[in-house]
Amino acid sequence: MTLYPSFIRPHALILIVVFLLFLLEPVAPLSTTVFGPGSETLALVTAKMVAQAGSSKATQGVNLFAGQDEAGAKLKRTWTKLIAGQGPDGPNPLPPNLNIATSLDGEGGLGSCLEATSSLIILADAEPLAPGAAATLLSESSTPGLEKVVVVTRLGASKATGGFFLGGDAKLRECEEEIRKGAKSRGLEASVLRVGTLKGGGPGESGLGLDKFFYNTQAQLEKFMMMSGMDKFTVGCSVLPGNPLTLANPVVRKGRSISFDPYPDECSVIACASAVRHLLGRDGTVDATLSAEKGEAPPTEEEWESMFSRT
User: Each residue of 197-229: pLDDT tens digit?
Assistant: First the structure.
């Protein structure tokens, strides 16, 4: 008497059993990790936006890393209030699929987050990753399930040669090159978005940014008015192919620091985060520059696709 139907041969039965075991094997949920020394506000808005809306490449979870020990725990509390708001008994809860890691290892730590990462967002618009960090992040051992890499960097960084105003951008260029090299070693191409001065990040009219608690953190009235004005009236964005713009010099930038008018070398935090979210679910890669435009809401998914398809 056989334990399987006569039309199934023994070796076929073994294959079926192996296949069923594979289906039953627990698989770590794919997630998106936002990492890097770039704009903190951009990191928080991007994480919140991706967690709330998801994408075809990132529907299971979003990870941020606040640091370790008490400093990390303190920063996590601050980030939670910025993302979810302050309730009567403390910070409101984060979206259930948004994790803020405060350790390097263990469950929920940065290491386990990276192991489950399918999409990696690297923010290097303010300063570069430490030398060698990109190679570690993009290694097979750190991110074995990696499928998508999106980098936000600064205008002009890829063509920087040093100098009095642009010496720091040369390091950003080296960082960008290291990320591209690391992605290529995995058979991937990194999408690169270039931005200048980032402004805003609160809820504005669209409600896509951080909680209104964000505005309470602005100590200067002029900065508060600029941030809220940017989030209400300058959330539009245009997309330029490649790296055609450079930042205005520091004197000019300081003179318009409290303006929410759209300048070519500036961008809304909300618009930038929306662009990153779109790229997570988009096939192919881009190398493009984002530039501020008037608007009470960022481009729609269809508008982003139309602009990126021309880059």
Answer: 999 999 988 889 999 999 999 989 999 999 999
Cα 271 to Cα 202: distance, rounded to the nearest angstrom: 12
Tokens standing for residue 184:
């290529």
Question: What does the block give as tokens for 113?
Answer: 């987050």
Domain enclosing residue 168, as ranges: 27-308
Would you list the DSSP string of the chain?
A: --SS-TTS-HHHHHHHHHHHHHHHS--PPPEEEEESSS-HHHHHHHHHHHHHH-BTTB-S-EEEE--SHHHHHHHHHHHHHHHH-EETTEEPPPPTTEEEE-SSSSTTSHHHHHHTEEEEEEEESSSPPPTTHHHHHTSTTT-TT--EEEEEEETTGGG----TTTHHHHHHHHHHHHHHHHHHHTT---EEEEESEEE--S-TTTT-SS-THHHHT--SHHHHHHHHHHHHHB-EEEEEESS---PPPHHHHHHTTT--S--TTEEEHHHHHHHHHHHHTSSS--EEEEEEE-BSSPPPHHHHHHHHTT-
Q: Give the global pTM.
A: 0.87
* pLDDT over threshold 50, residue 48: yes
What phi and psi values does residue 203 have, to the nearest 5 degrees? -70, -35
Which tens digit of pLDDT belongs to each residue from 84-103? 999 888 899 999 999 999 99
Report the alpha-carbon distance of residue 51 to residue 122 in Å, rounded: 16
Question: How many independent structural domains does the chain possess?
Answer: 1
Instruction: Give a yes or no: residue 178 inside a domain.
Output: yes
User: Within a domain: residue 109?
Assistant: yes
Report yes or no on 263 lying in a domain. Answer: yes
For the domain that residue 113 is a member of, what is the CATH number? 3.40.50.720
Give per-residue pLDDT as tens, 261-274. 999 999 999 999 99
Tell me, yes or no, whether 18 lies in a domain.
Answer: no
Task: Give the position of tokens 């398809």.
Answer: 309
The Cα–Cα gap between 297 and 134 comes to 33
